[in-house]
Amino acid sequence: MVDVTDNQQRASELLRLHQDPALLTVVNVWDVITAKVVSDLEGTTALATASHSIAAARGYEDGENIPVDEMIAEVAQIVAATSLPVSADLEGGYGDAPETIRKAIGVGVVGANLEDQMKPLAEAAAQVEAVMKAAAAEGVPDFVLNARTDAFVKGRERDQAEVLADAIERGKAFLDAGAPVVFVPGRLNEEQVVALVDALGPQRLTLIGIPGIPSLARLEELGVARVSYGPMSQNVALTALAKLVESVHAGGGVPEDMRLLN
Length: 262
What we know:
It is built from ten helices and eight strands. By secondary structure, the protein is an alpha/beta fold. The longest helix has 18 residues.
């Protein structure tokens, strides 16, 4: 049984990390060994799971195809493997976002990504409000809901000025509904980041670390709260595995700079 007081303390610390002017970076994990490797490295202050990566490791396509209890079970093992606060990527909530958040809090999760999937804005904002009320009822009022809008993810073919306006409108609505931070994934340029921070406020915006976005140092200067890496970390790990296989097939072997991490 997870201690409610411990949960709230970890949630408060995770919230503080987002509100600190120093940029919070989280390299996403997907199982116990990745959680241990990342949490043991100097500079790591919090962990975040990647739903895509967890699903892929278990043989499921991304997009809520993994059963929610299987996702929560994997997240529970990750939480148990570290003393750091853990935020879980819970996609769109698996059909019942407040109940999914309650299950996650029950295994020690103190923050979560939740996609709006571009549902009607009133419906998406109501879901955010319901999730924050559920977290408070579970004794974790500082639960760090990273309310995600898919405006850019689903708006690649649209006029980007209109997409930015949608992201701002939705982000403001999610903050008004009680979310402490808003996640806007996409290959955003500096002008778009500035517009989002101006509209949402400093330390309220979180981004995904993909090629093409401004540098981490610049994002910190602009007032971004957090950068996470989603499935990128698993892709990097799998790239290293593929390179090892290619090296072996070519007559080589293990790279000399390999670290013994487990």
